Amino acid sequence: MQTITTAAALRTVLSNQSGSVAFVPTMGALHDGHMALIAAAVASHDIVVASIFVNPTQFNESADLDAYPRTPEADADLLKAHGCNVLYLPEVKDVYPEGTGKSLTSTLGFGSLTARMEGANRPGHFDGVAQVVSRLLEIVQPDTLVMGQKDYQQVAVVRSMISQLGLRVELLVVPTVREVSGLAMSSRNRRLSIPETVAAAAINRHLSAVVAGLAAGWPARELEGMAFREIGTHPLLRPEYIEICDGDTLLPYQDGAPVREIVVATAVHCGPVRLIDNRLFAPSLAEEVNP
Q1: Model's pTM, two decimal places?
Q2: What are the structural domains, with CATH classification, of the chain?
Q3: In this predicted structure, what is the pLDDT of residue 273?
Q4: How confident is the model at residue 55 (pLDDT cuts 50, 70, 90)?
Q5: DSSP strand pairing (86-88 vs 273-282)
Q6: How many CA atoms lie within 13 A of 254 on its CB side?
Q7: Label partner for 165 (CA 20 to 30 A): which of 109, 189, 209, 247?
């Protein structure tokens, strides 16, 4: 595996390669969830490029940016072991040579995709996501962009960005990878204490219960309220939101509406860590998607 630190050097390396290119953008602190993205990329492409870049424009609080775990040596070893061909490990000035104020995405509109959930609770976050992903795609120029289902709203925003900018790249979404307990794998999990890790496993159980309720025909708003209250009864968990949405618009799902997919999404504070997760339900099949 080659490790490259500048956009110019990366373009030189990739221009001398042949075959299809898949790109997996990450912020490091890698785990098995990230390796599932790498595995999906390796399985269907000739060249796999991963980036590790802690993007400052998508953090609302400088303290959160400073606290984000950074383990580049271990990350590189993990990527190499799983078949990644190129690691792009840039500095901020390489990703944003003209400063963070300039972006291809500055004139885009995401409408309802950013109006609720993470968009409402983290103002400006998705502007930063769109900015960095568009810039990384400009640098790497892959055939396929690989992302994870856990960040469902982020995927929706990036899909819209690709469409609005007319980018020639396919988006491959890989199902969420979970711990044995059901807790969605996240770089933030390593900041949890043992009791907090045990408590956080309840999040997925409550989401699964909501999906079961949808399958049984329970009203969406009633399910949201029940799940919010039940998560909040745990002394180590503080739910921020739980929403049942149309998977395409991310607007609140209306009972009986003809939608392609329903997403049950949540953000929950556990100790010092804010965790997000989701489960998907297909009404036409009356069953969960990627359980």
Answers
A1: 0.92
A2: 2-174 (3.40.50.620), 187-284 (3.30.1300.10)
A3: 93
A4: confident
A5: unpaired
A6: 4
A7: 247
